[in-house]
Predict the structure.
Amino acid sequence: MHARVRGTDAPCSRCQSTSARVHGRYLRRLSDAAVSGTRVVIELLVRRFRCLNDACPAVTFAEQVTGLTSPHARYTPLMRGTLTSIALALAGRAGSRLAVALGAPAAKDTLLRLLRAFPEEPVGQVRVLGVDDFALRKGDSYATVLVDLERRRPVDVLPGRDADPLATWLLDHPEVEIICRDRAGAYAEGARTGAPQAVQVADAWHLWKNVGEAVEKTVAAHYTCVRAVFEKPPVPEPTTAPTGDDGPLAASIGTLDVCGRERRLVVRTRERFALVQDLLHEGASLESICHRLQLDRSTVRRFARATSIDELLVKTINRSTILDAHRPHLHQRWNEGCHDTAQLHREITALGFTGGIQTVRRYLRNFTPSAPTPAPRPAPRPRRVVRWIMTNPGNLPDADALSLKEIRVGCPELDAVTDHVRDFAEMMRDLRGDQLPQWMERVEQDPLPALHSLVNGLRRDQDAVVAGLSSPWSSGQVEGQNTRVKLLKRAGYGRANFDLLRKRILHRT
């Protein structure tokens, strides 16, 4: 498409004085929005005028067409808006491929440049603010997203997850009245420093997650009670089994291999637990223990926080084997009088068993031909027990409710935990945060170390926890924004710089 301006004069771009004295002409090519998928290019004949204002620093200037041109641009405003929308939605390479398909070809670098140049929207008045972190590089670098919970949109993204950037942002926005956050100490400190007038609300979902973690530790510590309820070993433990003061799991059948020897993993776990605990009693720091034992810091921390060897062995003794699915068949055939190991191995192989005959022989070694051997009832996994405890009793299937009832009868500690969890759930559901002090006092009356640790943490942040259990506001919207952030990160293959990712988070197409 060929075009030219019909007017005889034009205003100077610097001083705005009008001039009709033409200095020269040149041809300018502008890409416009496609028509029916066909690319449109406007070839505009542009005149260059001489500025007649002696005080103006510009000697000459090029005429501009309102709504069609802008200085140095190769796109019309309509085309620029189209490409910017594509960049906001898809960024670089993917956006470039879509632009070609739409008849508006643009390089990926052009789209990224348009995206970075896109103006930011004003934050406006934020009364209820949601705060949460997300990983730029997991385990390495993080950022903080701020969400206006009333308007349901992100308002800013801060580098890092420390207290200072949040405090600085809050000082610039004194209108904030409510801050919804997780229980991270840095955000609590930043909120206190930057907005002391605001009410801090600990997110209810994170509180429930903390309760679940405490319940899981308690179930791990008392898992022998669960096994005692569900599993009835066919024979007593061999007399050569190790004994000691390491806890009830030290003599459990789950810590031994099929030959009656203690598993190597169990021996190593017990030795490391003893070493870490001894060094802690001597006053050693976690870092020095890591160097001395050549262990990862997370491993040493797990051994240091464990109250007994039971918490560390619960996953070890509950590991599944390739024989688990075929144990009922072996017990049934044994009780029917079939004691031929080779025959039993052939039968379960036909049922899908992939192990060797020696595995079956070792398992049957302690069976007594003259006595019936009832098939063991497998104990539920610890996390399954946790799910039973954490689920609303009205939503539990009858079979799961019956199993939980058996566990509560067999273990007073898990019975008490179940009552405390249900009280907490009722308090959270009915927004009765004022009952939190009484709940914590009841928890401290029972011998439940994991829940005691939870209570100590709640006390350090009690005002925010009470507000979280009493207020309808939560960080649910912020978690949803974090899910969207993960999508944007993956769409950029994790290579987007902070400024580019920030633009895409704040601006929705």
Observations:
- The CA atoms of residues 67 and 217 lie 66 Å apart.
